[in-house]
Design goal:
With about 170 residues, the protein is α+β, with helices and mostly antiparallel strands. It contains four helices and six strands; from the N terminus they run αααββαββββ. The protein has a six-stranded mixed beta sheet with strand order 2-1-6-5-4-3.
Length: about 170
């Protein structure tokens, strides 16, 4: 009797471990419908690129939140009032010789806000002789007065050289 119980105790783990686990019935992820604000943000970013390429200073300033915006770079985090943003575009800003968004990702942050993350190629100088510079980019777009506007924008030049960008 003792031998039978001992044999049973020794055989039980072997039987338990030799059986395959039941198959997992995990459904593949279903594609989510794109939130309406993501479509609006895609249009915003496409028009933003056109405004940059065509040097539309007033339109560029108009893309920012009227309360002002956080500007983030490799060495600064600063809140700029809209009047400062408008003045910078009117007086000091120069259009790129080329510009191209790359790898933009849109993450809704609610029905009236979306985060945009990606990169861009900026062609410095009016003649396009200098190679384009690759930047990391992120922005928080919020709805204000029925339109998306930039509330926070981060731009940092990448260390790696950039390929040639599309010319205007």
């Amino acid at each position: 009797m003792r031998r039978s119980i001992l044999a049973l105790l020794l055989a039980a783990p072997a039987v338990a471990f030799s059986q395959a686990p039941p198959p997992l019935h995990v459904a593949p992820p279903q594609p989510r419908a794109e939130a309406p604000i993501v479509g609006e943000a895609r249009m915003f970013m496409a028009r933003y690129a056109q405004d940059l390429l065509e040097g539309r200073r007033a339109e560029l300033a108009g893309r920012y939140d009227r309360r002002g915006a956080w500007r983030v770079g490799p060495s600064k985090v600063v809140f700029e009032p809209w009047s400062t943003i408008e003045a910078n575009y009117a007086r000091r800003w120069s259009a790129p010789s080329s510009f191209e968004w790359q790898d933009l990702v849109y993450e809704p942050a609610g029905p009236d806000a979306v985060t945009v993350i990606g990169r861009f190629l900026w062609g410095p100088g009016p003649d396009g002789r200098k190679p384009p510079v690759l930047f990391a980019y992120s922005a928080l777009l919020v709805r204000q007065d029925g339109a998306l506007r930039i509330r926070m924008e981060h731009e940092s030049a990448a260390a790696e050289p950039a390929p040639r960008a599309r010319r205007r």
